[in-house]
Amino acid sequence: MVRSDSNHLMADGETDAVALLAEARHVVDAELDRCVERLATTVPGTLGTALAYALRTPGKRVRPALVLAAYRGAGGRSGAIAGIATAVEIVHTYSLVHDDLPCMDNDDVRRGRPTTHRVFDPCIATQVGYLLVPVAGEELARAAGALGLSATALGALAGELFEAGGIRGMVGGQWLDLEAERRSLTLAELTAVHRGKTGALIRAAAVLGGIAANAEPAVLQALRRYGEAIGLAFQVADDVLDATGTSEELGKPAGRDAALAKSTYVSVLGVDAARAEAVRHQQCAVAELANVPLATTSLIALARYIVTRPS
Ligand code: GRG
To answer: How far is the C-alpha of 104 from the C-alpha of 171, rounded, in Å?
Structure first.
């Protein structure tokens, strides 16, 4: 055990994850600022202001940290990886803006701030979400150029990111989730929803880091399986936090799943078994990293953080 600056006792590895998340926040927030400046010239007025609001909301930056850890784990060394991490974060941001809309979860607070549609209006927030998707594509292409990657590698990056964001990933999972409202799901059905809705983008973050480092197919496969498992661990932990955390801790209303009568890992398994399920996925993720040439310390630390995080 080590002692952090805040005098909070931290388990081994947690400091690595906290430092990596801080670094990811630093480099991605700088990249997002540059993105906002570029957009200000092309998207003036209220829509531009709303785009800046959504892009500058302070999230944990877990997906960018995964991109950095996978990239460096696979031998990548360039600072331009921040642009790939930013592209993933922009897709994530779009999903949060749309997820909060009145036609979806109808949430008032996100990341400790009023949601985009509450500050502006649902029409503007809908436009913000749609606009962020091509912005993520531009960011990805710019970063691939700065990294000196080939057109084939850029194709692989784009294919991975937008398949994860599409019908076979996040959007498909969200559709299943919306269809499942007010219905009790089995554990298998719930897992199918979250493999797409939450897991796909997290998996893509790990794989993108590997592609950007020109990793061998076996390393990419290990990163894919690792990402798949921590994606599920992330959602199980999210359900536990929603049931056990406070709104102040979470930066969004706690207990929303129960209020919306959603099937969750907690409603299906109970809190204790859900926690055990998250740890099981974490262990599966870490097991995938063995036997490939990959520096694993940060990836293991992030897997642990994902199930022990406070928000
Ligand atoms: C049009 C059907 C349709 C879908 C649009 C809305 C949408 C796409 C997808 C929903 C995806 C979604 C919001 C999944 C939840 C993932 C999740 C657990 C988010 C919270 O992630 P954190 O904790 O958030 O990393 P921060 O704020 O820290 O970035």
So the answer is: 12
